[in-house]
TrEMBL record:
This is Xanthine dehydrogenase. GO terms for molecular function: iron ion binding; oxidoreductase activity; protein-glutamine gamma-glutamyltransferase activity. SUPFAM superfamilies: Molybdenum cofactor-binding domain, Transglutaminase, two C-terminal domains. Residues 144-311 form the Aldehyde oxidase/xanthine dehydrogenase second molybdopterin binding domain. Residues 1-82 form the Transglutaminase C-terminal domain.
């Protein structure tokens, strides 16, 4: 049995559950109720335990037993940070016959409706009765919100939200300016205290939009971006001409991120974006059947970078003394821009292939499409084996895959 309950909990509300137990036996029955509360992931896997308790009750004949269960907000607020489903499991058994389990796993049940359990004389095999409730995560509701805030994509958080915070701080400083002028040797606490007792508003809202942006695609004029990020990269690779397999030996990157707000985070962003580019330029190829069916589905057919694809020596440095007067603390956003630095791996592969072709007596330009997969590298390294497999004339065959 699976029941959908659409009610949602309110912000910071304690979860209340009530079990109603009934028995058709003519004598009192001691029952054991084992209750466990778990935060669940979106795919139904347990994330973290919240609480567990064991209740022992006496179930009288003809009289319903009401067992309240309360999960306090203070108990579940932290474990529910990454979850919207709380699972409350209750197992009811007869303590005089421990092998007789009358109820297994039930999800969140609110006071209305209660969970009604009838204990029978004969032990039976019970199926799972699952009750799901759409759970409004109260933890999210308690966090401070800013209206009209954009998602934190493309590393724009510092530029947009930081500038908005700066505007709000400027407003507050302006309101405190009379108290600073009146008491120039005072402290921040004394200025705020004086403003508070003068009933000055000590909260402010800041809103920021990047100025002077606007690009006309028809006239190819205007400013599409407030500033640009720059980086340089040098990569060294090794190619096995017989199999087409390559190894990324070393990569050195210097990235301009202005005055970094957090060098550890920025370097991690550069490393991650570079490896994403390695997948783009050397591994990740979409193949479709002639009927339009995507063949490269899932990890078995669509390869993304792994640990072995990381260069043996990967060095990332941030450019020093790089000022940027268009962002907070002279910083620069960094996220996707270093992705294109992985093109150095692609062109290093092409140089290596050119050297192999030169040894085979082939000179001049040749075509190498991105991504430079194993098949493309092997085919480009022309030798006596590739001559044994000449390309078929177009129109004489039906391709097994189509490149888009």
């Amino acid at each position: 049995m699976k029941i959908k309950e659409v009610s949602k909990l309110m912000n910071g509300e304690d979860v209340q559950m009530k079990l109603v137990l009934r028995s058709d036996a003519s004598v009192p029955r001691p029952v054991s109720i084992n209750i466990s509360v778990t935060a669940m992931s979106y795919n139904g896997m347990p994330l973290a335990p919240i609480q567990s308790e064991l209740k022992k009750e006496m179930l009288l004949p003809g009289k319903p037993l009401h067992v309240p269960v309360v999960v306090a907000f203070s108990e579940y607020c932290k474990p529910m940070l990454d979850s919207e489903v709380m699972k409350i499991s209750a197992v009811v058994s007869d303590t005089s016959s421990p092998d007789q389990v009358y109820l297994v796993e039930n999800d969140l049940v609110l006071l209305d409706p209660p969970l009604d359990i009838e204990l029978l004389n004969e032990a039976r095999v019970w199926r799972e009765a699952v009750v799901e409730v759409a759970f409004a995560n109260p933890v999210d509701q308690t966090l401070e919100k800013c209206s009209l805030t954009l998602p934190t994509a493309a590393s724009a958080s510092s530029d947009l939200n930081g500038a908005a915070v700066l505007k709000a701080c400027d407003i507050l400083n302006q309101r405190l300016l009379p108290y600073k002028d009146r008491d120039p040797h005072g402290t921040w606490e004394s200025w705020v205290n004086a403003a508070y007792f003068d009933r000055v508003n000590l909260s402010a809202n800041g809103f920021y939009r990047t100025p002077d942006l606007g690009y006309d695609f028809e006239t190819n004029s205007g400013r599409a971006f407030n500033y640009f990020s720059y980086g340089v990269c040098c990569s060294e690779v090794e190619v096995d001409c017989l199999t087409g397999v390559h190894k990324n030996l070393s990569t050195t990157i210097v990235m301009d991120v202005g005055h970094s707000l957090n060098p550890a985070i920025d370097i991690g962003q550069v490393e991650g974006a570079f490896m994403q580019g390695v997948g783009l330029f050397t591994l990740e190829q979409l193949l479709y059947s002639p009927d339009g069916v995507l063949l490269t589905r899932g990890p078995g057919a669509y390869k993304i970078p792994g640990f072995g694809d990381i260069p043996t020596q990967l060095q990332v440095s941030l450019l020093r003394d790089a000022h940027n007067d268009k962002a907070l603390y002279s910083s620069k956003a960094v996220g996707e821009p270093p992705l294109f630095l992985a093109a150095s791996v692609f062109f290093a592969l092409k140089d290596a292939i050119a050297a192999a072709r030169l040894e085979a007596g082939l000179n001049g330009p040749f075509r190498l499409d991105s991504p430079a997969t194993v098949e493309r590298i092997r085919t480009a390294c022309a030798d006596r084996f590739t001559k044994m497999c000449p390309a078929a004339e177009e129109g004489t065959y039906r391709p097994w895959a189509v490149l888009v």
